[in-house]
Specification:
- 39% of the residues lie in helices and 18% in strands.
- By secondary structure, it is an alpha/beta fold.
- Strand 8 and strand 9 (195-200) form a beta hairpin.
Length: 266
């Protein structure tokens, strides 16, 4: 049998709700073959003095090459990359691989408040990685940080930001409006010509850890299977909305999106 193949290049979230763990759970739900290259291990806790452990460039290279050599990659997504050096090397590996679909989730701040992209790495993200992207998926705060502008407060603001982000080189821009108060959960998709608004109900929950990772992973999975960008995003939004609607609480702060929800509850 043959199956579509997707690689995630991102951080490992030891608590299981985000990062590589969320991506692989999403790939399984979308019936694609998931692979991973871990850029950093994120294990924030109250007992140790450190919670983020970046991986050596040589380790990241080896993981990417192993996926390309032994399996092949139909689509890939990037998540937490953290440093300028990692971003630059990942960008060169993507160019070398000629993978047809690249989803860039410009992960900057975790749900628990951790800084997941160093300040000096933002220019590298914009210059080296974004022009290689089929689609980038910033949330409101990430979009504002990339453009050094105020955080969008309305859907019209989001449209303006999407147009500005398009000039950085991606083929499509998806600005996620999950944090937009007083509006439904609206996202803005822009391809340089037309804007599409994707709207769903706003779920009243704090348990959204991993939602952004899950969304971008679902898009990558659908692109690998041959969907158009707009089809992929529609299906991914439906999937992540279900994952938030049936989110898991651990009674210890912010809980996790539930990756099996679309299959088991919808």
């Amino acid at each position: 049998m043959s199956i579509s193949k997707v690689l995630t290049i991102a951080g490992s979230a030891s608590q299981g709700s985000a990062g590589i763990q969320a991506d692989l759970k999403t790939f399984q739900e979308f019936d694609v073959y998931g692979m991973s290259a871990i850029t950093a291990i994120v294990a924030n806790n109250s007992k140790t003095g450190q919670g983020i452990f970046t991986q050596p460039i040589e380790s990241i290279e080896a993981q990417v090459y192993a996926s390309l050599e032994h399996v092949g990659v139909d689509a890939l997504k990037t998540g937490m990359l953290f440093t300028k050096d990692i971003i630059e090397r990942i960008a060169s590996l993507i160019q070398e691989s000629e993978v047809p679909h690249v989803v860039v989730d410009p992960v900057m701040i975790g749900k628990m408040g951790s800084q997941l992209l160093r300040d000096e790495a933002i220019e590298s993200l914009k210059r080296d990685l974004m022009p290689l992207a089929t689609v980038i998926t910033p949330n409101l705060h990430e979009a504002a940080r990339i453009l050094d502008c105020p955080v969008p407060e309305t859907p019209e603001d989001m449209k303006a930001v999407a147009r500005d982000l398009y000039h950085l080189g991606p083929s499509y821009i998806l600005v996620k409006g999950g944090a937009l108060d007083d509006y439904p959960a609206v996202d803005i998709l822009y391809d340089g010509n037309s804007i599409v608004e994707l709207e769903s109900e706003r779920v009243a929950t704090i348990h959204t850890s991993g939602a952004g990772c899950t969304y971008s992973a679902a898009i990558a999975a659908e692109l690998a299977k041959g969907s158009s960008v707009e089809e992929a995003i529609h299906r991914a939004k439906s999937f992540v909305t279900s994952a938030i609607r049936y989110a898991i609480s651990f009674d210890r702060g912010i809980g996790s999106t539930y990756h099996a929800a679309h299959r088991t509850h919808e």
